[in-house]
């Protein structure tokens, strides 16, 4: 009761001033910016494992931003990728992927296996991707592993990959055989008009990063989050 007696003993002017201060403090507290992220959640770590379609892709920053907004937690995307490389190279990079201790691994490793001058047979490519998937499942058992099919090829870069669809199918089959996930971006690319598709992939293989972000990222966000975030 001491506090109440002190309050009643205050002059009316002091009571009004004190009440105004409390009101202003409450307004500031309510209007303070919120981070929007759930408290104490560590960043979701994603490793993008692949070829130049990842190394030169440019879609990773957009994936970080949009997926973080969707999940309401930080997202960190790290690339283990090299232009011109095959599954033979990828077998030597598994330690790098494992060392990141990812929550999600995105894999695209068929594109250069399918080029005629690389001499990676379809059976060798299938064997390699199977070994890669088995090692990742064993060494990072908590990670979601998502095998991807990327954009279509055209022009000379398409001509040197006459059987690329067979390589994609083989990689998809090896993923599904192990109960792993597969995301096919090709239908979204193929919805573009021919002129727009050429403008988006002017060299016939490597999409412009801004267009790649618009095509690839919403599909990945929806798949990883398990819902459409309306972005």
From TrEMBL:
Xref: InterPro entries: Ester_Hydrolysis_Enzymes (IPR051532), GDSL (IPR001087), SGNH_hydro_sf (IPR036514)
UniProt entry keywords in alphabetical sequence: Hydrolase
CDD domains in the cross-refs: SGNH_hydrolase (cd00229)
Gene3D superfamilies noted in UniProt: SGNH hydrolase
MF (Gene Ontology): phosphatidylcholine lysophospholipase activity
Transmembrane segments: none
Statement: the UniProt record of this protein carries the keyword RNA-binding: no
PANTHER family: SGNH HYDROLASE-TYPE ESTERASE DOMAIN-CONTAINING PROTEIN (PTHR30383:SF5), THIOESTERASE 1/PROTEASE 1/LYSOPHOSPHOLIPASE L1 (PTHR30383)
Record protein name field: SGNH/GDSL hydrolase family protein
Organism name: Rhizobium pisi
């Amino acid at each position: 009761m001491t506090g109440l007696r002190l309050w009643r003993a205050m002059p009316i002017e002091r009571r009004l001033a004190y009440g105004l201060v409390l009101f202003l403090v409450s307004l500031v507290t309510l209007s303070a910016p919120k981070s929007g992220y759930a408290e104490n959640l560590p960043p979701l770590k994603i490793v993008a494992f692949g070829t130049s379609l990842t190394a030169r892709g440019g879609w990773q920053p957009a994936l970080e931003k949009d997926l973080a907004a969707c999940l309401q937690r930080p997202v960190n995307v790290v690339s283990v990728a090299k232009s011109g490389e095959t599954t033979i190279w990828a077998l030597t990079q598994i330690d790098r992927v494992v060392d990141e201790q990812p929550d999600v691994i995105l894999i695209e490793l068929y594109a250069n296996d399918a080029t005629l001058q690389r001499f990676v047979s379809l059976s060798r490519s299938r064997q390699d991707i199977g070994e890669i998937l088995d090692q990742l499942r064993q060494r990072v058992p908590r990670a979601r592993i998502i095998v991807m099919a990327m954009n279509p090829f055209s022009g000379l870069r398409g001509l040197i990959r006459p059987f690329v669809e067979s390589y994609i199918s083989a990689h998809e089959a090896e993923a599904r055989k192990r109960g792993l996930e597969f995301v096919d971006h090709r239908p979204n690319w193929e919805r573009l008009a021919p002129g727009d598709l050429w403008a988006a992939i002017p060299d016939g293989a490597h999409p412009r990063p801004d267009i790649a972000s618009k095509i690839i990222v919403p599909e990945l966000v929806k798949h990883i989050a398990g819902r459409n975030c309306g972005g």
